[in-house]
Amino acid sequence: MKKSIKDYTIKIAEKIAPIVSSRDIIVKLKNSISKLKAKKVSLDFSNVVFVSRSAAHELLIMKEELERKMVRKKSIIFINTNNDVKEMIRTVASNRAIPERNKPKFRAEVVNIDTIIKNG
Amino acid sequence: MKNIIILKPKNDSLVAQLVSFYETLKNAEPNEQLSFDLSNLTWACPLLVLPLSAYINSTNSEVKIDDCEIQDYFKAINFPKGVDSISKLKQIVQSKKSYIPISILKREKEEDREKLESMFSTIIYKALDKTPQGTSSAIYQPISELVTNIFEHSKENIGYIFGQLYPSKNYLDICVVDRGRGLQRTYFEEKKLELTDAESILEVMRGNSVKPGNERGYGVRTSRNLVCDGLGGEFIIISGSAALVSKKNYNNIATLKNFYWQGVIIAYRIPKPDKPIDISLYLE
User: Using an 8 Å Cβ cutoff, are B62 and B37 in contact?
Assistant: First the structure.
């Protein structure tokens, strides 16, 4: 992390990984950002090739929560995102704005194990 | 210790591997210490290899590979121990160019775990060589979602991932395994839902998340949709005594008699992509 009093930049590929997958890692990132004195924190996605849907969801929650805080409120900015990362964050953000109320149906035929063995 | 001879799968299909694995652990007590004999095997894919590795490691079972025709393969992928560090993964990939070792992800390693998973996914993607637009995201997304589920829901501290590209057969197999509390117990402990193993798998596929809010619960379903509907692959989930076998327009669920897997196994096979894919169509 690069330090300054007002601004802070975190290089995500170095701090986390070039592919950001897990929610728990983002929760940990949020906790470490919360402790910073900086008012503006830039998350630098240079060299990040992909962010999963779950991680993007958690990143957006983190951004909202840190920007809403009464104490040590922070502005979180995503910078240097490649097209895949940008698209993922936008897709998840639009689903957060207008969530799908009805989850799609899923139907499966109940079969006997012998049917599966026969198909094998 | 009971000796178990692992049956040679009937053919190369993913279902045949499932059947071979089912026959292997059928009639074993949950978590029973066993001695596995792999000498009959002439071919094995991740759906057979990875759950066996997880089982052996978690129960301190024994395995004999010296008389096996594919013992070099097992050695190359570091079966059954796997690797849990980036340096070891790099070292093996450099020396055994066609094989990626079994990777073991440990909760407490946090960022290092994420880096190991990231490297695994990158190696798998690069092995595909020359792919159409969107393929990298289509490869990374299901691995990411299925691995994050282990550390979100299983209450287990270790996850297993393994993959193998078969260039002559033109497909890629991936498997993700945990030895945690399984789906049925997760629904019971988190939502007080009393479901069978088969019903629990169906709830997962319907997006019934144990986490609050309606923005969760899409990880497994969207992975299945991306693999089967987007990439034309096959997708299998095993948890407890049930298995779902899924393809495009085809979902079969069965109870596995006299069998119990503590945790979750997810395996899928995708043909090497030959046309561009837009994963946002499958993310919901």
Answer: no
ipTM exceeding 0.90, yes/no: yes
pLDDT tens digits, one per residue of A47-64: 999 999 999 999 999 999
Query: Structure pTM?
Result: 0.95
Domain count, chain B: 1
Partner residue opposite B145 with nearest CB, options A18, A54, A117:
A54
Residue B119 sits in a domain whose CATH number is 3.30.565.10
Domain boundaries, position A37: 7-100
Using a CB-CB distance cutoff of 8 angstroms, which residues of chain A are in contact with residue B111?
15-17, 25
Give the CATH number, domain containing residue A80: 3.30.750.24
A63-74 pLDDT, tens digit each = 999 999 877 789
DSSP B126-194: HHH-S--TTHHHHHHHHHHHHHHHHHHHS--SEEEEEEEEETTTTEEEEEEEE-SSHHHHHHHHHH---
A108 to chain B: nearest residue by CA? B251
